[in-house]
Design brief:
Order of helices and strands: HHEHHEEHHHEH
Distance between the termini: 57 Å
Number of strands: 4
Number of helices: 8
Strand order of the largest sheet: 1-4
Amino acid sequence: MALSQQEQQAFLSAIERVKQDNQTLLENSKQHPIWPLQVIPRLHGALDLIATQAVTYPAVACASGCNHCCHLTVEINSAEASFIVYRWIAERRELAALRHVCQAYMDASREHVGLPCPLLQDQLCSIYAYRPAVCRKAHSLDQSACAGRAPHIPQQLERLLKSEAWIEGVTRALDGFQTQQRQPLPQALLQVLDALERQQSEQQA
């Protein structure tokens, strides 16, 4: 659905507001050891709030156990990948297990497409509490469209635009502090794990 000129301008203004707000947060928290990651839970909270405030009609068809979108390629930036690994460690989960599922996915994806997300376990997201922003944004008004891999999934326009403004605004804010290359989720997580191993090796040397 094409946006009117007024809607387009409002969307761009929302992106700029989010960017400026989060740039200020990043500037004021540089001394914190994980300062780039502080905007990620803030982004996630905003997206969750948008989801609860969205219009109630037409109703969202997504439900627990419905995971058609978990078979699509999800791309995340380095800050969000680092945040996922940070939360994984905080929950005392084995990094070796995370590396294993991500590497197995990367190996299998060379020959197959449409593989389920490596973090999907027993038809449920194993990192649901800190799942990526793009996953939080995703929603559908028609499960059959998702099941049939329809090229267009009906969504609530208001929720979509507000979510996109937050994601793009935070991305632009982070771009001012570090490179934010977007990569498939398992590849991005493996890079963070590799960096952690190098850091640990240097500390032990």
